[in-house]
Amino acid sequence: MLVLGIESSCDETACAVVEDGRKVLSNVVATQIAEHRLYGGVVPEIASRRHSENVLGVAKAALADAGCEIGDIGAVAVTFAPGLIGALLVGVSFAKGLAISCGKPLVPVHHIAGHIASLYLSGPLEPPFLCLVASGGHSLIVEVLNYTEFRVVGRTHDDAAGECFDKAARVLGYPYPGGKFIDEAAKNGDPTAFSLPRPKIPGCPFDFSFSGLKTAVVNLAHNAEQRGESLNKADVAASFQRAVSSVLVEKLMLAAKELGYQKIAVAGGVSANSGVRAAVAEACKMSGRQLFLPDLKFCGDNGAMIASQGYYDFIVGRCAGADLNGRATMSLEELNI
Ligand code: KG4
Ligand code: ZN
Predict the structure, then answer these.
(1) Looking at residue 214, which CATH number applies to its domain?
(2) How many CB atoms lie within 10 A of CB 261?
(3) How big is the chain by its Cα radius of gyration, in Å?
(4) Based on the domain organization, do 43 and 136 belong to the same domain?
């Protein structure tokens, strides 16, 4: 069965065709990053307008790249939550129009479930497993009970890991989104050069807090500026990346041990980070656990992950009608109801 996946929750207009949830036939992403970079972050109104302009062309390109026509598609899957509401509505409205006019089932997909499904495009992983999802908007530890049911066991109390990467990058003078620039700079830096906080939350062993770490990097940069000293950016990047990676991986491995998981996975934009990948690989090796990581091309937002999750949601009958709406916020666990 071929599923057309449509993603427009933030600043990428993306469409893809995936066969049986696993085989990617096409994956087209129109990114708006260059435009949002001018403002140092995503401007919701601009994002919605660009999605409206691009979505038809991106969908046509995805069908053409896959060598198929809309008649060959078994279902249209679309991200409906969570995300920027105006941006989501463009994808949802387009998917509704397409599905209804072509007589295809319409499958609403949760964005975080989509990130988790990026792992199904990258290897033989099957649930159950424990997954860290770290992106620009989310930092969660999720028990993936089966393809369509989830239990969130860890979450951030303030900023998401990607947001923290982007803020740290900004004070160091890197463009938005700065995660990958920190990653690059860290390769030439000393991760022990600066001692940065690794917050623990009493009573919530699997939860995160990144705001203190973010403030520490901001203060480091401002203090150096006030004293007229030049900061070694590579050393700050490496120390910061080490701090974020160790917090993420420490909590993930603690949850794996306490909840009894042998299969571990990481997904979301931050799963592209080389420090995070190395730290989790080392921890899994040390504890004899099996690790699954998404291919780099599926870490950031894309349509293929939505098509994959859409396939599994379709199989359990999660279809929507013409009344489908976008939702800016929605817990992954609401899907279980
Ligand atoms: O999953 P994603 O594309 O969008 C959301 O759903 O939020 O994640 C984007 C986030 C951004 O914060 C970006 O800086 C971060 O992922 N990111 C990285 C790297 N590549 C992307 N963070 C650290 N290292 C990277 N290599
Ligand atoms: Zn995302």
Answers:
(1) 3.30.420.40
(2) 20
(3) 20
(4) no
The residue to which tokens 């991986």 are assigned: 249
The pTM is what?
A: 0.97
Write the pLDDT tens digit of every residue in 31-65: 999 999 999 999 999 999 999 999 999 999 999 99
Q: Atom 22 of ligand 1 has which residue's CA nearest to it?
A: 179
Q: Could you give the CA distance from residue 12 to residue 58 in angstroms, rounded to a whole number?
A: 11
Convert the pLDDT of each residue in 124-180 to its tens digit: 999 999 999 999 999 999 999 999 999 999 999 999 999 999 999 999 999 999 999
Q: State whether residue 288 is helix, strand or coil.
A: coil
Please indicate, yes or no, whether residues 177 and 260 belong to a single structural domain of this protein.
yes
- Per the structure, how many domains does the chain have? 2
Ligand 1 centroid, distance to 90 Cα (angstroms): 22
Counting ligand 1 atoms within 8 A of each CB, the residue from 111, 180, 244 with the most, and so the one to mutate, is 180
Residues spanned by the domain of 7? 2-117+298-336
| Same domain, yes or no: 197 and 138 | yes
How far does residue 179's CA lie from ligand 1's centre (Å)? 6
pLDDT in tens, 258-304: 999 999 999 999 999 999 999 999 999 999 999 999 999 999 999 99
**Neighbour tally for 301: CB within 10 Å:** 27
